[in-house]
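Subject: for your reference before the review

Hello V.,

The reviewers asked for a structural picture of the protein, and I figured it would be easier to keep everything in one thread rather than splitting it across files. Below is the amino acid sequence we used in the manuscript, unchanged from the supplementary table.
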Amino acid sequence: MSAARDLSIPAVIQATRPDTELATFAAGCFWSVELVFQRKDGVLQTQVGYTGGSKAEPTYKEVCAGSTGHAEAVRMEFVPKDIPYSTLLTAFWNKHNPTQGDRQGNDRGSQYRSAIFYHTEDQRKQAEASKLKVQEDYESPITTEILPAGTFYPAEAYHQRYLEKGGQCASKGCEDNIRCYG
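And here is what came back from the structure prediction:
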């Protein structure tokens, strides 16, 4: 007998209009990464979840145990004419240290790795070019993976918009410092 699907897990976001695209990034704890992108004009919606691993429908506990191969990631729908993919890449690189491998700050484990999951060939090309450019700013090699976007599993509902629900500003253009806590 298999366990019933957790009904508190939201459906995977999709592009809702013909003029939008999807983007997916992993840069450590997904709470703060999501807030960075929530604040960007041209980003219509965000969703935190798990991708890049092998286990179907993983739970947060399983991902944190390191047995799924998934990264904590943020998937978003954006309007390229309002916020080009290159601007999203800049926000991604500025959000974290891409040389730390399987960690960000005090968060350790493969679920915290740096990765760009591209949805189009153009996104792949832009990601590769931006990685080469950003590498010029670091002595250590950038460990960011650039991979095709695969199946995205939304995280449990309590993780969605977590820092916003905790009182942090998610308004477009907000530049308040982001405080991550668990």
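For the response letter, the relevant points are probably these. The beta strands are 21-27, 43-51, 71-78, 103-104, 107-108, 114-118, 145-148, 153-154. Helices lie at 30-38, 60-65, 85-95, 121-135, 162-165.

Happy to draft the paragraph if you're swamped.

O.
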